[in-house]
């Protein structure tokens, strides 16, 4: 088999671009889009995604269910947008995928605080999640018509039931599914009704390969298959699940960042201008966090720890600023809207408690602006990444890549990035507020030699692989497995 000759089909909920009302487009946001953009601009692929905005829906209708070419700054893409019924999409995105699956896969719900699962949630699965999966599966099947043994790469937690639908229509397709978020242990999954759970796992097991960011998510997935399903055989050593006479390979492929792209951004004129603005207002030390305003990111505990640090080390008063750039996200989900309110409230409390007439300890910026984040990346002394759970966390890689002050990373042991970078960061338990506060102090008082050693160690690991390697590792496994079965 030579999959290079076959056009690759990518499918994800969020696509590479979103269209505005004026017909113009902007780049999609988030780790998944960043990772796949590299692939889509370097290989012949068709990227199928949901229509997310009115502008996307108009584009989907205009293109009449076919793919079209997009010429963007970072490459050209062949894109196909799929419009779903708005009510079904709302159930899919705002009730089932987020919060239900997202919460389960970040331990935001466990058995003690799980929501009541009622008709509303089950219907959101049946008439929301599955409808969007069916719509996208139909587009995939149309796109691979006439191609022998096509390769389809499915992405993330939005599309767990899609592979079974494609498999049914095209038993010869090679289905590769990458999950960008953590895979939690079996008990976390018991929140889901049994029928829904089974459909999700059987949907996923229709793939040939399932990929995760880390070995521990891979391990958790294998454990879940063993404990939650009764018709599978799991080989932990080989990372194989046998289901319905087929073998599913379960693998770990940690996602790297595109170092060249982030360095390019770091040298842009706008970043330069934003940096000058930042430096004008700079105190002696800068602590930084950049995140989506998501419960899994543990933003509140980060501020509580900073509060404690200032209380225990008053000598830092007026000498340090904590810049928190948070991008509002999924604001139609009540839990997220409420979280934003709690963030604003705690910032007000900490600023009131420690601030002085000419010093505001925490600067909260609620915005999505990569260049502004990069300007701050270049100048931080401490980068705080204290997520409760996080699939990978690309901020932990982007920051050290462009930082120019040998800044210290404080990194949660529960991020995927920790498996690679933990050794050179200050590793923290994200629930331990005292440890977080102590780490802020340790980072701010660390000697220059130690800062340099850690910063250089981080950069060496971060640059050791790039997104091209990530794709090549997956393609190599696709080849190997297809060869074995051929
Ligand atoms: O894998 C998680 C992810 O899909 C990332 O790409 C991104 O960080 C985030 O979730 C985006 O979420 P949404 O598409 O809901 O904005």
TrEMBL record:
Protein name: Trehalose-6-phosphate synthase
GO biological process, alphabetically ordered: trehalose biosynthetic process
Family under the similarity heading: Belongs to the glycosyltransferase 20 family.
Listed InterPro entries: Glyco_trans_20
Organism from which the protein derives: Baekduia soli
Any GO CC annotation of this UniProt entry: cytosol
Alphabetized GO MF terms: alpha,alpha-trehalose-phosphate synthase (UDP-forming) activity; trehalose-phosphatase activity
Gene3D superfamilies per the UniProt record, alphabetical: Glycogen Phosphorylase B
CDD domains the UniProt entry points to: GT20_TPS (cd03788)
């Amino acid at each position: 088999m030579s999959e290079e000759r076959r056009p690759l089909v990518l499918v994800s909920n969020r696509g590479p671009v979103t269209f505005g009302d004026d017909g113009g487009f902007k780049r999609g946001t988030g780790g998944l889009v960043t990772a796949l953009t590299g692939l889509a601009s370097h290989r012949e692929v068709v990227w199928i995604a949901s229509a997310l905005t009115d502008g996307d829906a108009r584009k989907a209708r205009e293109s009449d269910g076919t793919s079209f070419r997009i010429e963007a700054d970072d490459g050209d893409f062949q894109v196909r947008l799929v419009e779903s019924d708005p009510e079904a999409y709302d159930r899919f995105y705002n009730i089932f995928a987020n919060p239900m699956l997202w919460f389960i896969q970040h331990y935001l719900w466990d058995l003690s605080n799980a929501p009541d699962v009622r008709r509303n949630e089950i219907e959101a699965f049946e008439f929301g999640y599955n409808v969007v999966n069916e719509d996208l599966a139909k587009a995939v099947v149309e796109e691979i018509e006439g191609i022998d043994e096509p390769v389809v790469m499915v992405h993330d937690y939005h599309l767990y039931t899609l592979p079974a639908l494609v498999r049914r229509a095209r038993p010869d397709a090679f289905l590769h599914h990458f999950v960008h978020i953590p895979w939690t242990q079996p008990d976390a999954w018991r929140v889901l009704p049994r029928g829904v759970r089974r459909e999700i796992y059987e949907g996923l097991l229709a793939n040939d390969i399932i990929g995760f960011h880390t070995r521990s998510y891979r391990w958790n997935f294998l454990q879940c298959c063993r404990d939650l399903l009764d018709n599978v055989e799991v080989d932990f050593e080989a990372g194989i699940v046998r289901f319905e006479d087929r073998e599913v390979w379960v693998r770990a492929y940690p996602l790297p960042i595109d170092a060249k792209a982030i360095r390019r951004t770091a040298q842009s004129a706008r970043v330069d201008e934003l940096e000058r603005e930042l430096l004008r207002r700079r105190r002696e030390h800068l602590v930084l966090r950049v995140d989506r305003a998501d419960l899994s990111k543990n933003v509140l505990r980060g501020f509580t720890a900073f509060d404690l640090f200032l209380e225990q080390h008053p000598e830092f008063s007026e000498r340090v600023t904590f810049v928190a750039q948070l991008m509002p996200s999924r604001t139609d989900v009540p839990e997220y809207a409420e979280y934003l309110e709690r963030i604003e409230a705690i910032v007000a409390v900490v600023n009131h408690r420690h601030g002085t007439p000419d010093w505001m300890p925490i600067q909260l910026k609620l915005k999505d602006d990569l260049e502004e984040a990069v300007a701050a990346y270049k100048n931080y002394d401490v980068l705080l990444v204290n997520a409760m759970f996080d699939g990978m966390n690309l901020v932990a890689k982007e920051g050290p890549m462009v930082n120019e002050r040998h800044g210290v990373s404080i990194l949660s042991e529960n991020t995927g990035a920790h498996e690679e970078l933990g050794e050179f960061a200050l590793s923290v338990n994200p629930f331990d507020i005292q440890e977080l506060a102590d780490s802020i102090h340790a980072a701010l008082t660390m000697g220059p030699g130690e800062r340099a050693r850690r910063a250089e160690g981080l950069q060496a690991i971060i640059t050791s692989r790039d997104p091209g390697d990530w794709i090549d590792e997956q393609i190599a496994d696709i080849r190997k497995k297809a060869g074995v079965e051929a």
